[in-house]
Amino acid sequence: MTYSHKYGSITFVKTTLEIPDAIFRRAKSRAAERGIALREYVTEAVKDKLASDAKSSEKPWVRHMGKLKHLRKETARISRLIEEDSEKIDSEMWR
To answer: Rounded to the nearest 10 degrees, how much is the dihedral formed by the CA atoms of 57, 51, 11, 37?
Structure first.
């Protein structure tokens, strides 16, 4: 089916899904609670899953960025100590 929309045409595909009965009942119940059609609920669920998969397929280290932020002050302190120590001249070393 193709529907006209202000942004162009939207095409829907009819398909048959085989899902466990318990999941079907829960999905149908949740859709009814929200006052939407099961078709719309399933579409949202698939979109959410695809978006989630897209995020997880990004560079895996990206999700860990910023998690060590609480150590920045300690890292700066250690760097400062190393810098101060490296500025000292060891007289034994220059003999």
So the answer is: 150
Please give the Cα distance from 56 to 73 (Å, whole number). Answer: 30
Say what the pLDDT of residue 28 is. 95
**Tokens in use for 88?**
């000292």
Q: Cα 57 vs. chain centroid, distance in angstroms? A: 9
Nearest to 28 by CA among 83, 36, 74, 16: 36
Q: Which two tokens stand for residue 87?
A: 């500025």
Neighbours of 86 (CB within 10 A): 8
- Answer whether 36's CB lies under 8 Å from 28's CB: no
Domain boundaries, the chain: 17-87
pTM for this predicted structure: 0.49
